[in-house]
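During the no-cost extension, the postdoctoral fellow (Dr. R.K.) reprocessed legacy sequence entries with the updated structure-token encoder. One reprocessed record is reproduced below for audit purposes.
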Amino acid sequence: MQEKFYLTTAIDYVNGAPHIGHAYEKILSDVIIRHKRQLTDKAFMLTGTDEHGIKIQKTAASFGITPKELCDQNFNQFNSAWKELEISYDKIIRTTDEQHKKTVKQIFKKLLENGDIYKHKYTGLYCSGCESFLNPKDLTPDGLCPNHLKKPEEITEENYFFRLSKYKDKLAQYIKSHPDFIIPSFRVNEILNQLENIEDISVSRTKASVRWAIEVPEDEEQSIYVWIDALSNYITAIGYDIENPSEQFKELWPANVHVIGKDIIKFHSIYWTAILMSLGLPLPEHIFAHGWITIDQSKMSKSLGNVIAPHDVLQGFNLEHPDAFRYYMASAALIGRDGNYSDEDFKEKVNADLANNIGNLLNRTLNMLVKYFNGEIKPESITSKDCKIAIMAENTKQQIIEAFNKYEIAEAANLIVSFSDSVNKYVTENAPWTLAKEGKMHECAQVLYNILEAMRHIAIMLSPYCPNIAADILVQLNEKQDFSYSNLYWGGIKSGQITQKDKIKPVFLRLDSEFATGKKKG
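Re-encoded structure tokens follow.
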């Protein structure tokens, strides 16, 4: 068993409802943590919501409700979405939680005592979409925010600043000496380039500008700004305390990975790491920046009307569980690259991989077992010696572990499908129906056993992506629901094991099947 594994997602800003981009990150994270739980009983996943700031303040006012009421409404939407997608987080934090607010004030005071926070009058270009002051050199040629394509507002305020520039050289040295700190590696030079001209950052706003925030200790005119508030959730959620950190914090920190979008990698790999250095805390092992999800090759935009909620996909295809959507999203893009969602591609991919490949392989093999052996598994041998499929299963398991260690989640999914392809090829090459016709029942029994044992391996390896389909495969094999990698050895299915005919059914119906929804799905 591996040692502990602590994964965090970005916390979602609750100014609006969850969409498919939010779902992409949470599904990626959930697939990772489910895989790690196959290897250790000390895997912990944190997610949450970011609930302070001017946008929430303004949106709530436009609806005639309080900021807290808006946060409560939208938090419930996010949490419902994650439950519907079966996101198996261990804790969900809200930055309006009282314990979080208390610890954020502690952190602010500690940074101030360390001499890393100072008060300064400042004129800068502020993007309300990013809730961030922008450097002029980071703007588009037209002077717009590159993320929101809006012109930032020039603001003059006296705020508290964090001495980010103090940690410039130390950060650069750390990143260079830890080449896998930032994943994927093609993001490293981007961060090192941003460090070249890094400046101190504002960590407060005036109360006149932002009222909906945590107050700066002993300064009633100032509100703590997003960086210390939002980023600190990764430690406040597990019991960080300046004087008396919890046992959970001592066990879990540092995080093994922060899973975030590529648009906030700067804030995590520079701002957050410098804050941790000032606090004297170890840095996270990895910062994994995933790409974005486009819709029909276009970036999601309210103005384009192409923002999709994950619930809409599940409902639109009348899916009884979220496995198909989870599988598609987790395999939508190679590591760190952008992915795309379209209804047609979704239908084509899950039909090919889950229905035609994996599902059909199980269904036809079990039906042959019932036809030729009355459902009883009767192999000549259950050892892996000289069994090509057994060797491939072991190799695939090791390759999947290696892929997950590098956060190559889509690549790991491809390995499972590739192994299933090989098993299908093995079926064709060995033709158990021909062996039965020729009366070679011992050989036929061995071939069927090898296929079904391979299916047991596929179920375990597939379970982080498709927990319901994986469970259904094991039910049909009359196997215990044990998805741990300690159960991934050749020979798990015992001779004499019985598969009951009434349990055999497709584990995933094609999305264009009239049986999938009760009506023809085009």
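The chain has 19 helices and 16 strands. Residues 514-522 have pLDDT under 50 and may be disordered. The remaining legacy entries will be reprocessed before the final report is submitted.
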